[in-house]
Design a protein that fits this description.
The structure is a homodimer of 205-residue chains. The first copy, chain A, is α+β, with helices and mostly antiparallel strands and 205 residues long. Chain A is 19% helix and 30% strand. In chain A, the strands form 2 sheets. Chain A has a 9-stranded mixed β-sheet with strand order 4-3-5-6-11-7-8-9-10, with no helix packed on it. The radius of gyration of chain A is 17 Å and the shape is globular. Chain A starts with 5 loop residues before the first helix and ends with a strand. Chains A and B meet through strand 11 of A and strand 11 of B. Chain A binds a DNA duplex (30 and 30 nucleotides) through helix 3.
DNA sequence: AGTGATACTGTATAAAAATATAGCTAGCGC
DNA sequence: GCGCTAGCTATATTTTTATACAGTATCACT
């Protein structure tokens, strides 16, 4: 089986999560919305590559005719650990593992799990080592006060979202930390998802 | 749930078999071919009936937007809400519902879920409304420092356990609350379980 | 410097799928 | 005999979906 590029494995991971969540394979248009493509052909060509490399099967002329090639029946959600600056979230190398968590447990449905680092959200009851359930959906605009996974100039961080025109504030929930100020015209800001749930297991209790 | 006619259950059975077989829900045209209808509307109206009677869900405007309504098999763990003093934990009347959580997600395995009330464990990152995964096992003796669900003189409470001979302390994690002192010879103490995980979903974030 | 791959935008278009409307027949209850 | 429902036929029409074709920018090879 051919190697996937980071972007390709990100897309494959999303398709897997989506299918685990509501069983229907996505259409090109749905993929387009999720990744904020402006052309359905971006989705189409990615699917072609995934099919050529043997990760999926495409039934031609069939709506939603995407099938996952068996592999190790990916059930549950991937747990992402430390993400290196600039690298896509769902790339294989940051995966700590796979947890048997039903994506539908959270609403509006989770796409991946993220291990929290640091205490910047302590007062919101989110501690170092906790696991967040995250919904990744480019079409989802965060509401003020909502907790988001954001990437500012390459670095991934979890904070509370507050927007004021071209100015975005990423607010910690711990007086020992300072808010991050993001100027949408100057800084690069990517929303890697909104937090839809929290999970604490094992030693963290 | 409404009764189905023989024809209707024949069609429902076919849809179920089809979805188990190749995971894609059928289109109206596929149903038409399978049952030798000469009009897609025959399929359409059958689907409408099955949806109205609650056996399937139809997502309108969506190719293959058919979803089976899971026959309520008790999967997951029961979620317990406010427990009245003196009443058993798992009595029907305190059950808020059933969540699709894999008990094996937690180790050493959870037996039920409990909705937290109050802020007495705030500094341990457990907030009002959070859901705890609890292991109930009579043979399990709590270790000092472990979080337990205990019942003192009828009242259920979540605290950190500390034992010193005949004296047990139930310690909150919030300076606004006072430790509960329990004399094993004088007071009635039942251990309703040890906390093995935490779950936060929906509005609590 | 040239070639090919990745990762897209932008615009079409045909096929697939959902869905509306207007029937028709047989059986049941009253 | 009348109204009602189940179970269809037949024909359209609109939306969704798949998919082709023509580009652009970037990067890695060679």
């Amino acid at each position: 089986m051919d190697e996937l590029t980071p972007r390709q494995s990100e897309i494959l991971a999303w398709i897997r999560a989506r299918m685990a969540e509501d069983s229907l394979p996505p259409t090109r248009a749905e993929l387009m919305r999720a990744f904020d493509f402006r052309s359905p052909n971006a989705a189409e060509s990615h699917l072609r590559v995934l099919a050529r490399k043997g990760y999926i099967l495409l039934q031609s002329g069939t709506a939603r005719g995407i099938r996952l090639c068996a592999s190790e029946e990916e059930t549950g959600l991937p747990l992402i650990g430390r993400v290196a600056a600039g690298q896509p979230m769902l790339a294989e190398e940051f995966r700590e593992g796979q947890l048997p968590v039903d994506p539908k447990l959270f609403s509006p449905g989770a796409d991946y799990l993220l291990r929290v680092q640091g205490m910047s959200m302590r007062d919101a009851g989110i501690l170092d080592g906790d696991i967040l359930a995250v919904r990744h959906d480019a079409s989802l605009t965060p509401q003020d006060g909502q907790m988001v996974v954001a990437r500012v100039n390459g670095e991934v961080t979890v904070k509370r979202w507050k927007r004021d025109g071209k100015q975005v504030w990423l607010l910690p929930e711990n007086p020992d930390f300072s808010p991050i100020s993001v100027d949408l015209q100057r800084d690069s800001l990517t929303i890697e998802g909104v937090v839809v749930g929290l999970l604490r297991i094992g030693g963290n209790l």
